[in-house]
């Protein structure tokens, strides 16, 4: 495949510039079966950087912790100077259960711990991974603003968040990016979340733009999942729903064949065509899959092709919810300051 030049884009209106496609690193250590061999994953990350994909995405929750350690090792030897690094806080395990925390003291401690694991002095983009509905977003954002002021982080983001919460957070300190799930088969963010980000000048970072692997292999994606692959618990990946959903992949594949690209490149190109304020972060653990994903940047879609793809993957055409147990942006309504008192 011919080498693709990775263009740059301004993410949000606060000054951050990133590669037009990022690399989601979480799956290297978390969620998609056992952690992959560290040396192999470092090679993937460094190959991405050398290919021009310099916007890396991780979280303290991935592993937990081991993904940040992996990225820290991958950024040795001058690599740190080449990248825009995003990580997250807010999800943690407490007594074996997932807890969400936005308490200021926790925010500070989490940031310091991430800096240490990543072995860096400053985080380029620091997201709240999920919203703590026990604490007003203004309180959490106040602490993030302080971290910007002391130089621990450069830019602030939120992940999986309701439109009203975006507005409240942005009023305390400007948000640079909102991370959300957005793909051909996950489009519920288009009604409120995306327009709100655009109104406020906030960049949009779609994760799982390939439908957690669905648009790479279709229904085959569920054939060899390990027992600890989280997709086993997602309604959309249950065999009875996948039997219905596979027809969407088949149609996408037919269109891709006509265009001379792969179905994953076509699905990813659809996300890219949503606008110059959109930077998807597909994840992978293989260099050959990374190369294929980058190829999506050279796939051009006409308005007619966009409409055709959207028609076949309309929200009512998909069977199964996108998420299982973790809260979604629909749940992320934080209390107001007037109704909250610090403990």
Automatic annotation (TrEMBL):
Zinc in keyword set: no
InterPro entries hit by this protein: Aldo-Keto_reductase, NAD(P)_OxRdtase_dom_sf, NADP_OxRdtase_dom
Spans traversing the lipid bilayer: none
MF annotations from Gene Ontology: oxidoreductase activity
Recorded GO CC terms: cytoplasm
Keyword NADP: yes
Residue ranges of domain NADP-dependent oxidoreductase in the record: 23-312
Domain of life of the native organism: Eukaryota
Protein name (record): NADP-dependent oxidoreductase domain-containing protein
Lineage of source species: Eukaryota, Viridiplantae, Streptophyta, Embryophyta, Tracheophyta
């Amino acid at each position: 495949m011919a080498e693709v030049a990775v263009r740059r884009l301004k993410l949000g209106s606060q000054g951050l510039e990133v590669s037009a496609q990022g690399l989601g690193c979480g799956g290297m250590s978390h969620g998609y079966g056992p952690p992959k061999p560290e040396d192999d994953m470092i090679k993937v990350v460094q190959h991405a950087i050398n290919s021009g994909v310099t916007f890396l995405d991780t979280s303290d929750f991935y592993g937990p912790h081991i993904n940040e350690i992996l990225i820290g090792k991958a950024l040795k030897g001058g690599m740190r100077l080449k990248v825009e690094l995003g990580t997250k806080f807010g999800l943690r395990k407490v007594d074996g259960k997932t807890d969400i925390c936005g308490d200021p003291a926790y925010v500070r401690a989490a940031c310091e711990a991430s800096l240490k694991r990543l072995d860096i002095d400053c985080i380029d983009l620091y997201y709240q991974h999920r919203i703590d509905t026990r604490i007003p977003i203004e309180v959490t954002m106040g602490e993030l603003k302080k971290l910007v002021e002391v130089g621990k982080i450069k830019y602030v983001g939120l992940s999986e968040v309701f439109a009203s919460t975006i507005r409240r957070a942005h009023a305390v300190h400007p948000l640079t990016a909102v991370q959300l799930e957005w793909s051909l088969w996950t489009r519920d963010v288009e009604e409120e979340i995306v327009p709100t980000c655009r109104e406020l000048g906030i960049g949009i970072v779609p994760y799982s733009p390939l439908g957690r692997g669905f648009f790479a292999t279709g229904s085959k994606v569920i054939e060899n999942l390990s027992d600890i692959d989280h997709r086993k618990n997602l309604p959309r990946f249950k065999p009875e729903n996948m039997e219905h959903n596979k027809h969407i992949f088949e149609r996408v594949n037919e269109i891709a064949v006509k265009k001379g690209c792969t179905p994953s490149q076509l699905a990813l190109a659809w996300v890219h065509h949503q606008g110059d304020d959109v930077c998807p972060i597909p994840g992978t653990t293989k260099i050959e899959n990374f190369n294929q994903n980058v190829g999506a940047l050279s796939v051009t879609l006409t308005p007619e092709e966009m409409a055709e793809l959207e028609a076949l993957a309309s929200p009512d055409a998909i069977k199964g919810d996108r998420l299982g147990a973790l809260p979604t942006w629909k749940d992320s309504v934080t209390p107001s300051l007037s109704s909250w008192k610090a403990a």
